From TrEMBL:
Gene3D superfamilies: Alanine racemase (3.20.20.10). Keywords: Pyridoxal phosphate. It comes from the Bacteria. InterPro entries: Ala_racemase_N, PLP-binding_barrel, PyrdxlP_homeostasis. Pyridoxal 5'-phosphate (PLP)-binding protein, which is involved in PLP homeostasis. The keyword Protein biosynthesis does not apply. This is Pyridoxal phosphate homeostasis protein.
Amino acid sequence: MSIKENLEQIKTSLPKNVTLVAVSKTKPESDIMIAYGAGQRVFGENKVQEMTSKWENLPKDIKWHMIGHVQRNKVKYMAPFVSLIHGVDSLKLLKEINKQAQKHDRIINCLLQVHIAKEDTKFGMDEGEVISLLASDEFKNMQNIKIMGLMGMATFTEDETRIKDEFTFLHGLFKKLKGIYPASAKINIDTLSMGMSGDYNIAIACGSNMVRIGSNIFGARNYN
Ligand SMILES: *Cc1c(COP(=O)(O)O)cnc(C)c1O
């Protein structure tokens, strides 16, 4: 099937409250423009440089989401335009985002990444770290950050029960934080980013309202 057909099929299958992030990492701008032509406006990338050059070349109504692990020294490149940063996993990183956002007189929307997988390789904070970050004076003093919710990646496994347990845990934390923090200028726990090509149906059943789908739209990636 074509990119357009893949995209249309996925979009019609998603519940109305679920936002689709089309993950275009490693894919050429021409592929992004096919999806754009089919109405897609939200794209996800995992490398700051790649996202920045795509932003420079492509239509300005695209919303660029940074879904990968972010190095602090790269934040400055995306600060002028990034629409949502999914992978915030430390106060140090958040401080740098706040500083760069300030330079551009913007509020940058962020998700806190929570480590839910039973794998060492996936980044993210645990529940205690999330709660102490949000309670810290340093966070309270940041004027250019808005926390929009949580992001997580399940273990890469065939074991659906395990995937479901991990997503259910994250949904539980999401609801808990929603209860602790009423919506304000700095915190609006509204977005739960979980689910990729292989597990987005499970994620949605477990409460996800933002899915990040790459290969099911654009085809398999080649890494050189
Ligand atoms: C690459 C990537 C995705 C998309 O993966 P697919 O399996 O191709 O859908 C989603 N989330 C993150 C964080 C990624 O790095």
